[in-house]
Amino acid sequence: MRYFALVLSFFLLTSFSYHKFYVSISEVNHNTETAALEISMKIFTDDLEAALEEDTSEKLWIGDPEREVPTTDSLLAIYFDKKVTVSVNGEEKEAIFLGKELEADVTWCYLEIQDVPAVKSVSIDNRILMELFDDQKNLVHIYANGKEKSLFLRRGKTTGEVSY
Predict the structure, then answer these.
(1) What average pLDDT values come out for the chain (164 residues) when binned by 10 residues?
(2) Backbone angles phi, psi at 66, to 5 degrees
(3) Which of 35, 85, 139, 144 is the most exposed, having the fewest neighbouring CB atoms within 10 Å of its CB?
(4) Is residue 7 in a domain?
């Protein structure tokens, strides 16, 4: 029995060490002072590069100050425009790409939706990286009206809505 437990433990530990997680985390904050939704997305840099490079023929080198392609930010803006749709109070809104920051092996991407004085409902369709990974998960945390609500989006359920 002890031998079986040892073999089973070894198998489980080694099989998980080769499995990569495919997850993005987004935070959507309603800023009442600026009447805007501020969106921060945390995405693994290598996965984000792979998604963007699928439409280009060159390596982008996101975050490498000497090799990053000058058009990277515009490619990110186009990618997010295609992969993320946000509706506020039943009306689809345009998310403007503001920029990015690198932190270890992840890239923080920032978007903003202007002219949102009040939030009654938020609907988000987030298909980031789902064209590459069948098991991609996109977590979205929405902060509005003093409350936090969360969405768990995945292939087959890319859209979710919260009401306040």
Answers:
(1) 40 46 96 98 96 89 94 97 98 98 96 98 98 97 98 98 98
(2) -95, -25
(3) 35
(4) no
Q: Is 1 within a domain?
A: no
d(CA 72, CA 69): 6
Please choose, from the candidates 129, 124, 120, the residue with its C-alpha nearest in 3D space to the C-alpha of residue 147.
Answer: 120
Question: Can you give the pLDDT at residue 4?
Answer: 38
**pLDDT of 94:** 98
Output DSSP code: residue 162.
E
Could you tell me if residue 10 is inside a domain?
no
Structural domain span for residue 141: 20-163
The rounded distance, in Å, linking the Cα atoms of 153 and 136 is 9
DSSP string, 34-59: TTEEEEEEEEEHHHHHHHHHTTSSS-
Q: Domain count of the chain?
A: 1
Count the neighbouring beta carbons within 10 Å of the beta carbon of residue 122: 25
- pTM for this model (two decimals): 0.86
Q: What integer pLDDT is reported at residue 152 of this predicted model?
A: 98
